[in-house]
Amino acid sequence: MALELDSITVRYGRTEAVSDVSLSVADGEVVALLGPSGCGKSTLLRTIAGLEKPTSGVVSWDSADLAGVPVHRREFGLVFQDGQLFPHRTVAGNVAFGLRMRGVDREERDKRVLSLLELVGLEGYAGRRVTQLSGGEQQRVALARALAPSPRLLLLDEPLSALDRVLREQLAVDLARLLREAATTALVVTHDHDEAFTLADRVAIMSRGRVVQVGPPAEVWSAPVDVETAKFLGCTRFVPGSFVGLDLERVGLRATALRVDPDGLMEGTVLERVHRRDHVRLLVEIGGAEYEAVGPMTEVGDRVRLAIDLDGVARVG
Ligand SMILES: Nc1ncnc2c1ncn2[C@@H]1O[C@H](COP(=O)(O)OP(=O)(O)OP(=O)(O)O)[C@@H](O)[C@H]1O
Fold first, then answer.
1. CATH number of 230-315
2. Signal peptide span per the entry (predicted)?
3. Which of the four, 27, 90, 147, 282, has the lowest number of CB atoms within 10 Å?
């Protein structure tokens, strides 16, 4: 394993921000640390970077303990939410920064900067001032800057959350592609499950300082470890498996679990209707209880038949 965390605990006074976390990231792997605000994700990332000292536990790289290794000697790249670019430098000046610090000669630096700008889709931007760029472009520059010295690990703390939703979705896809193209080993902190599942080979779910589940996106999505995790991953109702025809004690239903379908086996009454970006979301009453469902257009009060979409159903616990 490239990065190995062994029983990391980080306390600030009486607050235990990170509790006994063990996790590894393999060479070339992208792992997402996913959890709600305040669960300790950033603290864990900062501890790996060397910006915080663990109260106990070991951070190691290729089996070597990093305790005595300062931030700038870890050879890790860092990208934060707001990029933190040097405002008085050009795009090229920002990307070249780490290379200049390392004494890389000008010709090689220029070559590397151009190839990185191409990688992040900013060809032709080298001479621009970073203050003239959009938020999304600035984050691409921050990423190119972090990748420039070929870090052995890239640490990204909410790299897309300052951007608006449409841009965030687009950039998450781009980021996933370019992390793979550059064969980067990376740990990404995010509170957004769509982002985590788009980017990562494995997702580690954090809750109150602990890692409660680690697995490939499809596994975590379809079988959250407990009700709290299932709620965090979009399940709004919990019912016996028999409700959806599964032989399971309990399943979680996402808003997409039920769909209006004339051939559906259940019947319900529409209580509410909300228009979303690309579909209609309904609240329906089935057998005296309320459930979310995906429409076509219907009127409040309509009787509808409903079918189950198993992609919206999670096995819980
Ligand atoms: N420097 C600090 N001093 C004291 N408490 C801190 C410090 N940094 C973080 N904490 C506390 O540790 C806990 C975890 O915070 P952390 O920022 O790691 O969570 P997070 O999951 O990254 O949340 P967010 O997404 O909101 O940044 C919180 O209760 C926070 O208040």
1. 2.40.50.140
2. none
3. 27
